[in-house]
Design brief:
This protein has helices at about 1-20, 60-65, 80-90, 125-130, 185-210, 220-240, 245, 265-280, 310-335, 380-385, 410-415, 435, 530-545, 565-570; strands at about 35-40, 70-75, 135-140, 165-170, 250, 255-260, 285-290, 340-345, 355, 360, 385-390, 400-405, 445-450, 455-460, 470-475, 500-510. With about 600 residues, the chain is an alpha/beta fold. The strands form 3 sheets. A 10-stranded mixed beta sheet has the order 6-5-4-3-7-1-8-11-2-12, sandwiched between helices. Strands 13-14-15-16 form a 4-stranded antiparallel beta sheet, with helices on one face. The radius of gyration is 27 Å and the shape is globular. The N and C termini lie far apart (about 60 Å). It binds 2-acetamido-2-deoxy-beta-D-glucopyranose (3 copies). Its cofactor is Ca(2+).
Length: about 600
Amino acid sequence: MLFSMYAMSAALLLWLLLAAVSGVPGEEVDKRPNFVLMMVDDLGIGDIGCYGNDTIRTPNIDRLASEGVKLTQHIAAAPLCTPSRTAFVTGRYAIRSGMVSEGRVQVLLFLGGSGGLPPGETTFAKRLQQQGYTTGLVGKWHLGVNCERRGDHCHHPNQHGFSYFYGLPFTLFNDCLPGENSDVLADLQHTLKDLSMLLAVGLITVLCVRVCGLFEVSLWLLVPLFLLCILATAVWYVPFVLLQTWNCILMRNQDVIEQPMELDTLSERLLREAQHFVKKNADHPFLLFLSLAHVHTPLFNTPDFAGKSRHGRYGDNLEEMDWIIGKMTETVDSLGLANNTLMYFTSDHGGHLESADSVVGQKGGWNGIYKGGKAMGGWEGGIRVPGIFRWTGRLAAGRVVDEPTSLMDLYPTLKYLAKDTQPDRQLDGYNLMPLLEGEVVRSEHEFMFHYCGIYLNAVRWHPPGSDSIFKVHFFTPNFSPPGAGGCYDTKVCLCHGEHVTNHNPPLVYDIFNDPSESRPLTLDTEQRYAEILEQTAKAVEKHQSTLTDEELSDNTAQHGVPGQMTWDKILWRPWLQPCCGSFPFCRCKENMTQV
Ligand SMILES: *[C@@H]1O[C@H](CO)[C@@H](O)[C@H](O)[C@H]1NC(C)=O
Ligand SMILES: *[C@@H]1O[C@H](CO)[C@@H](O)[C@H](O)[C@H]1NC(C)=O
Ligand SMILES: *[C@@H]1O[C@H](CO)[C@@H](O)[C@H](O)[C@H]1NC(C)=O
């Protein structure tokens, strides 16, 4: 009896002691940080105050940089949304998951296509989910939805580790706002439209001839002509004219909640959802990926920002985006989470130079001193983006890192901080914490490979012990008109065939001394010239040898991985189309009173 009383009080004492040490009775506080990752669409590095812009107001982004670490050589793994985002969430070049294209279509074009991030891929969200994190994606996905039938959701964010999804399974694009030009295969649309017209005119002529009795026209000619006319119209009209209905939708998890989506309230709804997610999960490790629809065309604005900037509709949209970043920072800070939350700000690739017209003026981002832009895999303007990390109390305020870093580094960095030590696949990123904390001064990225579609466009080499950043271009896009600095005739540059000029020997620049890539190095001007070609060739060989032994092996396609961007996977299929209500009359509006 006495013994058991002793035992009980000893146990009580021990319990009290433990509780006092850990702060919370009975359980240990989970000290792993939260993550708030904010990605802007098509933002240029030259658009931001703390990256040198003096006419755009981005006080909230600038504040994040002054309270954290700013990366000046932060590189996207691809110059377009779908492959860049693939590499971002998987920590590997998009070629490893087949999310690259041989031809002109390099992003997913229809939600009713079957291509997308393969179900067997692993994302940082999936890894963190396995570590007990609550994971959410608010905003744009653009990595596919269905494989074989509507609702199988094999590529959906919920399937890829995000336990909560609210947002755009596709992307914002011009077709979401009636009256803007179409972004999807405009020339094909015109050809199909002309063909339908031609057939219709032919049909009417033949009908007239028959009705007027000018000639005897057999019914056998009329019937096929009529059917052909219907078919051509359907093939043109159904997928293309209804693009807004098919692609501009909002989902909450597995449900389509708005179709087509209302743009006027989109910003506030994305912000509200992101804030709500943070508040709801404040006492448990969480990952929020806020993937903004800004600053992609058609540049919608809420009235508070319209006409306020010095750079037209583009500037207004950008300043609204900055305001959203400020609201997110405020939310994290007001909940007392700043010391335990790693906040990250970036863009998926460079600004779209060719996006401009005589009415609105500039509609795409500004890449500062860097050459080229969106869709150009080799030129710096297509891939160098802002990169800011803030974690008060852990990362030194105001530090600047000039070393090469990649968006693919997020995956291993998040894993490291979430204490995930399980084995993984071949990754192309590195844990950034030693560099961010100033424990090391050199980046682990001695080489970086710059893809344009499936093609290796350029290689970056940061030789040990040197400041130089050599970039070796195997091909460059053909600008149109020549010398224009962009591909204005086609609206985006392409990576294949007659759209590029191959260089043998390759074009070499030192972007440490010549960041605008304007003075190619030669044997005479650069003493390391031969070494640069030799070292990069070796690195390419080594890199390519890692592309074959993938776990997703299927020998029907490139590098053993089934290609996700082939025409048959890209084109619209009615039976894959996400839809609310009954197909094909998909139409619904979010019930705002529910939230
Ligand atoms: C600032 O950004 C605007 C909008 O993209 C751009 O037009 C302008 O040239 C930029 N200014 C500087 C100094 O980079
Ligand atoms: C955050 O960390 C800093 C520096 O370690 C400290 O001064 C501050 O009090 C902390 N804030 C909170 C809310 O814990
Ligand atoms: C919206 O949601 C509220 C609350 O759940 C419900 O009472 C209302 O009937 C819904 N409205 C519509 C139009 O579905």
